[in-house]
Design brief:
Elements: E1 7-9, H1 10-14, H2 21-28, E2 32-34, H3 42-57, E3 66-70, H4 81-88, E4 95-99, H5 105-118, E5 124-132, H6 142-145, E6 150-158, E7 165-173, E8 181-182, H7 194-198, E9 205-206, H8 208-230, E10 239-242, H9 247-257, H10 268-271, H11 278-288, E11 297-304, E12 308-315, H12 332-337
Helix pairs in contact: 3-4, 8-9
Bound molecules: acetyl coenzyme *A.
Acetyl coenzyme *A (ACO) binds near residues 24, 102, 143 and 304.
């Protein structure tokens, strides 16, 4: 995982918009979030996380056959972030694909990578969830700017005959809610111009209450559906990793699912909502904290723009990675020099 060094606390936000630490904590559970510096982007965060993932998996970049990056905040309209990564990593045999399914992006990528591996097309996939949400939020809109943060998380997926692994992926969408959470400008409908800029169309817009209502139901229904299709009773899961958007959404899901709170991994207080990076960062921290061991059954569930939902039931069969030696960070050249201007 990779996080910008810069921490923006709720107190910092009090001097930017009309808000309070108390309001943000009580409505969302967020205390602080990480914000990318000028020489960081989705690509630099993704690159650092990817290097850690490859090092941890002891996989050489030449053996990566596909790089999938899930992001709604790519560096450019095109080329894809995955193309930039493929070059920077010297992953000469890797195909490169970006997917944009917002907060469900990492789990969508997991389902696609799993399908490609299980069908025999690929043996090794590098999957990244990376976002710089700070670049698409309106820092004068208190209803949204307090919610999001920047981060990246990466995983290596490999073919295995040992059983377990990804037991079931469930992906779903209700596009009738598409305009509850959107970024309008800069695409083919509202091409960027002085008018769209003046209108703030390059910023994320959200109907918070609508998304909240959807989120609680989606988290609960998707968790139950994924467990059922995986053939694993809910109480046999050792760990639940929900999309980290709002502690109230997570707590509602805990109550409705009637699962012990201690089985839910939560880090939304420190990072806010990092969209496609939320689940892989939480997974990484859960591993570091010793909450996953060989044989652990893990349920990951996300919801987000689309509107969309995703669930993954997995049984961790690989040795638990020791990330103690990784995380040296990017060189100055990689942070600044590689960024095409
Ligand atoms: N500080 C102080 N007051 C605020 C703030 C703030 N930061 N933001 C909004 N308010 C005010 C509003 O203006 C409103 O005031 P009013 O009653 O005078 O009009 C009041 O607080 C209540 O606003 P609501 O929007 O009703 O507050 P709510 O309790 O619904 O909480 C929140 C808002 C936290 C956004 C909640 O709706 C939520 O979490 N929604 C889900 C968001 C989410 O999970 N998004 C995921 C996106 S995933 C992806 O794909 C990117």
């Amino acid at each position: 995982m990779s996080l910008p060094d810069q921490v923006r606390t709720n107190q910092d936000l009090e001097s930017i918009v009309d808000t309070t630490d108390e309001w943000i904590r009580s409505r969302t559970g967020i205390r602080e979030r990480r914000i990318a510096s000028e020489d960081e982007s989705t690509y630099t965060l993704a690159l650092e996380a990817s290097k850690q993932a490859l090092e941890t998996a002891k996989l050489s970049p030449e053996d990566v056959e596909m790089i999938i990056v899930a992001t709604l905040t790519p560096d450019f309209g095109f080329p894809a972030v995955s193309n930039l990564l493929q070059d920077a990593l010297d992953a000469s045999d890797a195909a490169a694909v970006d997917i944009n399914s917002a907060c469900t992006g990492f789990l969508s990528g997991l389902a696609l990578a799993d399908g490609l591996i299980v069908s025999g097309h690929l043996d090794n996939v590098l999957l990244v969830g990376a976002e710089t949400m700070s670049r698409v939020v309106d820092w004068s809109d208190r209803a949204t700017c307090v919610l999001f943060g920047d981060a990246a998380g990466a995983a290596v997926l490999q073919k295995s005959d040992s059983g377990g692994g990804i037991l079931k992926s469930v992906l779903g969408s209700d596009g009738s809610g598409a305009m509850s959470l959107y970024l309008r400008g800069g695409g083919s409908r509202y091409q960027a111009n002085a008018h769209t800029i003046a209108n703030g169309d390059h910023f994320l817009k959200m109907d918070g209450r609508e998304v909240y209502r959807f989120a609680v139901k989606a988290m609960v229904d998707c968790t139950i559906d994924t467990a059922r299709r995986a053939g694993v009773p809910l109480d046999e899961f050792d760990l639940f990793i929900p999309h980290q958007a709002n502690i109230r959404i997570i707590n509602s899901a805990i109550r409705e699912l009637d699962v012990p709170e201690s089985k839910f991994f939560v880090n939304v207080d420190r990072y806010g909502n990092t969209s496609a990076a939320s689940i892989p960062v939480a997974l990484c921290e859960a591993i570091d904290e010793g909450r996953i061991e060989p044989g652990s059954k893990v349920m990951m569930v996300a919801f987000g723009a689309g509107l969309a939902w995703a669930g993954t039931a997995l049984e961790w069969t690989a040795p638990v990675p020791d990330r103690g030696v990784v995380g040296a960070g990017l060189s100055a050249r990689e942070r600044l020099g590689v960024l095409p201007s």
